[in-house]
# Entry
Amino acid sequence: MSDFAKILQDKCMNFSVRIVNLARFLKSEKHEYNIADQIFRSGTSIGANIAEAECAISKKDFMAKVYIALKECNETIYWLELLYRTRLIIKKEYESMYDDSNELRKILGTITKTTAENLKQQNTK
# Structure
């Protein structure tokens, strides 16, 4: 595993831990179960799909897994904003979680774009 892959997996795992703790907080303190379940699924799915991408059988498979992680990241950002707008989390919590998820979104977007360009170049040879 490359250093970059290890860093990405660590970032995803750390974000997943934060998501698990957020879902736990939402259920126990705010008695919000529906959004807690939604953000739990999308937020932890990011890292799970990156873990699957590490064992991809082809570059297309790798790109598909990373793209799913990117979509799950976008969904997680949606739920974070909804939690903030409905005042279930405070601005400081929102900004911290948003910053982490947006960093992941940028990384995953770059990986997806670069992989797609590489696949396109391979197919034109």
